[in-house]
Amino acid sequence: MATGGQAIDALGQFELHPVFGPIGASVRFTQSNLMMLIGAALILGLLYFGMRAKAVVPGRLQAMAELCYDGIHGMCINQIGAEGKAFFPFIFTLFFFVLMGNLLGLLPFSFTYTSHIAVTFALAAMVIVIVTGVALRIHGLHFFSYFFPAGAPKLLAPLIVPVEIISYLSRPVSLSIRLFANMVAGHVMFEVFASFIVMMAGAGLIGGVAAIGPLAVNVILVGFELLVAVLQAYVFAILTCIYLHDAVHLH
Questions:
Q1: Rounded CA gap, 94 and 176, in Å?
Q2: What is the four-CA torsion angle of 55, 60, 62, 63, rounded to 10 degrees?
Q3: Residue 72: which of 107, 46, 105 has the closest Cα?
Q4: What is the 3-state secondary structure (H, E, C) of the chain?
């Protein structure tokens, strides 16, 4: 897209580039990988330093760590049942991996690794593989009855079974596209309105005054994207819990 003779490359921010010079290029270590490591380090740091004090009256960092722990633990128990305790480490890791990817991408000169479909689809595929493995381990071949609801007329089996299978296999697609699309859309809007600000500000006094409009929109977008970042991580985690509930209880 071009405005005023200047091109706006709204999608250029999603390009991958090697970091750490020739070493990074040789192993294809990109800014996406770097942000994943930073996100993991931040979460580990929060848990380690937050819980190190073990105070009866927690400080801010400990309170935040306990809130994170209790919140995800409660989600697992409420959505999956008592069996959810076994899946708590997985859900906790998944939630904060997605959350940190969403939040870190809002910082200047950073990168949103959850804006790449390869990352989100890999996460979603891992979820479905684990869910299917859990179902087979608990129920064995009885798991396949999931694709034909109890009480349904057997004559409709040729219609119901394919529909249920397609619905089951569409889960990783919907999980990955939902997260990927929301992250890409938000950052493209940031880029477009930021470009409007720069172009208008360089067009003299009138343009500088007019630039207040897209600047205000971008400020609002920051708050909106913070909300979306948390919400999308929550949706990803809670849908995983729902899928695990179906796998454990087979309904």
A1: 13
A2: 100
A3: 46
A4: CEECCEECCCCHHHCCCECCHHHHHHHCCEHHHHHHHHHHHHHHHHHHHHHHCCCCCCCHHHHHHHHHHHHHHHHHHHHHCHHHHHHHHHHHHHHHHHHHHHHHCCCCCCCCHHHCHHHHHHHHHHHHHHHHHHHHHHHHHHHHHHHCCCCCCHHHHHHHHHHHHHHHHCHHHHHHHHHHHHHHHHHHHHHHHHHHHHHHHCCHHHHHHHCHHHHHHHHHHHHHHHHHHHHHHHHHHHHHHHHHHHHHHCC
Please check whether residue 90 is in contact with residue 134, taking contact to mean a CB–CB distance below 8 angstroms: no
pLDDT at 36 (0 to 100): 95
Do residues 73 and 86 make contact, with C-beta atoms less than 8 angstroms apart?
no
What span, in angstroms and rounded, lies between the C-alpha atoms of 147 and 157? Answer: 9
With tokens 């804006």, the residue in question is 115
Are 83 and 248 in contact, with CB atoms under 8 Å apart? yes
Question: pLDDT means per 10 residues in the chain (251 residues)?
Answer: 55 83 85 93 90 79 89 94 93 95 89 92 96 94 86 84 91 93 87 75 62 78 90 96 92 65
Can you read off the two tokens belonging to residue 64? 């935040």
Q: pTM for the complete prediction?
A: 0.87
Q: Say if CB 139 and CB 118 are below 8 A apart.
A: no
Q: What is the pLDDT of residue 7?
A: 59
CA dist 249 and 244 (Å) reads 8
Q: From CA 160, how far away is CA 104, in angstroms rounded?
A: 43
